[in-house]
């Protein structure tokens, strides 16, 4: 078990309005949700944090392992090489309906080489770790004797006590012309007047609970399976058949059985002209086995 000296914050239990009816269908329905008191990291897990975990355990992330042919039927053996998805800005305007215009599979990309072979993290130790699959995040959590937050916990904490507002700080994305989170400033995906990538944790103002980067910088893993609408507390318990249906809905493509989990918080790629998701209510599906340039995590625990 880790000697976990990370700074955590006690979030008092309470009820809040979860979701939004203003933006994307999967954020609905808006409903009252109760959250019990819990603790959550003040900052996202950094490269330095993850390096200590790997040094202590010898853990190898999903992006560094050989791919299992059984999981990728029809893919040529020579193409089954480790890697991750790396964001690549375009040279100019492009079709925003096709994410493949700015994402590429980079052989050899992983948490220690976030842009591919030849890149490193020596100058990014205080940045959030990225290219971590769900298994990589939960392995770190087990080592630390803690867990990932639920979707409701993350949203509740991200709101910082500002219940019902569009953003963590109010209803305007850039109050007074200020950027209060690391998001895309300019025309996506070619003109960014902001950071252009991850920023060191804590670079932007803390929220009402004293938490940093709950919005923007990187999306963060939660424990919840993604479904195309919120499952309400009043819904009947998830039985085996319903669970199978949820997993089917969470599959990235028809016929695949790799479930998707809910990501929360938005990232440095969120832009009002493409992805207005640097908001507490926003959510995004992510296949459990895929590391990406804009996905990280933080830990939580019961109070």
Report on the structure:
By secondary structure, this protein is of the alpha+beta class. Helix content is 14%, strand content 17%. The chain contains four helices and eleven strands, in the order ββββαββααβαββββ. The chain has helices spanning 47-57, 134-143, 151-159, 240-250, and strands at residues 8-11, 14-18, 31-35, 38-41, 83-87, 103-107, 219-225, 260-264, 283-287, 295-296, 300-302. It has a four-stranded mixed sheet. A three-stranded antiparallel sheet has the order 1-4-11, with no helix packed on it. The longest helix is centred in the N-terminal third of the chain and has 11 residues, at 47-57. Residues 1-5 and 251-255 have low confidence and may be disordered.
Element order, helices and strands? EEEEHEEHHEHEEEE
Q: Rg, please?
A: 19 Å
Number of helices: 4
- Terminal CA distance reads 19 Å
**Average pLDDT over all residues:** 90
Q: Helical content, roughly?
A: 10-25%
Strand order of the largest sheet: 9-8-7-10
Largest sheet: 4 strands, mixed
Low-confidence stretches: 1-5, 251-255
Large-scale geometry: globular
List its traits.
three-stranded antiparallel beta sheet; 4 helices; 303 residues; alpha+beta; disordered N terminus; single chain; four-stranded mixed beta sheet
Task: Please provide a brief summary of the model.
With 303 residues, the chain is of the alpha+beta class.
């Amino acid at each position: 078990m880790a000697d976990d000296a990370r700074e955590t914050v006690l979030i008092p239990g309470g009820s809040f309005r979860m979701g939004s009816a203003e933006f994307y269908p999967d954020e609905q329905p808006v409903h009252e949700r109760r959250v019990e008191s819990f603790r959550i990291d003040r900052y996202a897990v950094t490269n330095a944090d993850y390096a200590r975990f790997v040094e202590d355990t010898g853990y190898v992330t999903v992006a560094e392992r050989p791919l299992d042919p059984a999981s990728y039927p029809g893919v040529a053996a020579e193409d089954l090489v480790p890697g991750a998805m790396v964001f690549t800005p375009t040279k100019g305007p492009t079709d925003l309906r096709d994410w493949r215009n700015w994402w590429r599979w980079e052989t050899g990309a992983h948490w220690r080489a976030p842009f591919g072979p030849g890149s490193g993290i020596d100058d990014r130790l205080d940045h959030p770790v990225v290219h971590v699959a769900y298994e990589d995040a939960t392995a770190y959590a087990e080592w630390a004797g803690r867990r990932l937050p639920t979707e409701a916990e993350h949203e509740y904490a991200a709101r910082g006590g500002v219940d019902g507002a569009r953003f963590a700080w109010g209803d305007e994305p850039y109050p007074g012309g200020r950027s209060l989170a690391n998001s895309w400033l300019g025309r996506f995906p070619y003109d960014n007047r902001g950071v252009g990538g991850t920023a060191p944790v804590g670079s932007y103002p803390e929220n009402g609970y004293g938490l940093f980067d709950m919005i923007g910088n990187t999306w963060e893993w939660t424990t919840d399976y993604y479904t195309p609408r919120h499952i309400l507390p009043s819904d009947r318990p998830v039985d085996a058949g319903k669970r199978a249906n949820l997993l089917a809905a969470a599959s990235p493509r028809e016929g695949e059985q790799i479930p998707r989990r809910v990501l929360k918080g938005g990232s440095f790629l969120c832009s009002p002209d493409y992805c207005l998701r640097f908001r507490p209510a926003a959510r995004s599906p992510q296949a459990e086995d895929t590391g990406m340039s804009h996905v990280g995590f933080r830990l939580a625990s019961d109070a």
